[in-house]
Amino acid sequence: MFGRWFRRASTARPGRIPPGQAAYAVGDIHGRLDLLDDLLRRIEADAGRFPADVQRTLIFLGDYIDRGPASRGVVDRLLTGPLAGFTTVRLMGNHEEALLSFLDRISDGLDWLTFGGLETLLSYGVPLRTLPSSGRQVIELRAALAAAVPESHLKFFRRCVFRHEIGDYVFVHAGVRPGISLEKQTPGDMMWIRDDFLRSRIPLPGRVVVHGHTIVDVPQDRTHRINLDTGAFISGRLTCLVLHEEERRFLSTLDG
Q: Which of 75, 124, 173, 211 has the smallest number of Cβ neighbours within 10 A?
C-alpha cells in the first residue's frame, strides 16, 4: 500500500497559475503586526520587479489573532486592501472560528483562552486575571469582549472564506481531508485538520494545497502541499509563498 501511495504522490502536478498573474500567500500571523508590516513591504518590493503582471492576488491563510501581542492591530491593518493594486483574499483560521464560537455562545471559550485567546482579550482591552470558573463569569467575559470588539472587526471575521483557488492551487487554512473531492471538503476540516492530512501522500487530484496551521521551522514544499506556518508569533519568521506561472518561491521576514 505504501508503494502505491508513493507512486501516486510522485506523479503530483507541480502546479501553475495563469500567465500574467501573481499570487502572494501569507502564513499564520498570530498578532504580529510588526512582522506583517515588514512582510507587506517585502511583497510590495517584489511585485515591483514584475510590472507586466496584470493581476495580483494577496491571500492570507487565517489565524490573524491570538498568541502575539497585537491581534487588534493586525485586523485593523487587514480591514481594507493592505496593498494597492492587489486583490485581497482572507481565509478563516481555526483561531478566528474559536473566537466567533465564543461570541456566538457555541462554546464557553475556555479552550480558546488556553491556546491564544487570552492575548486577544488583552489586545482588545479586556482584562482577565483568571480563567472563568462559573457560567456567570463566562457570560460576563463574553459580554465584555462583545463590547470591546468593533463591529467592523466582527464583519471582517464573519466574511472570511474557507478556501480560494487560483490555477492549480487551492488555498486553505489547515488542509483537506484525504480521499475527498475539493467540493465535498468541510469547513471544519479546512480549518482544523492536521495529522490525517499531513501524513497522507495522496495528493488532491490536479491540485497543490497551500496551507498553514501546523508550525514548521521553515516553509515546506512537499510538491502536493506547501506549509507556510513558520510560527511567526515566537520565531519572528512570517512567510509568504510567491507564485508566477510554474515558479514558486518564498519571502520571509528573516530574509537578509
A: 124
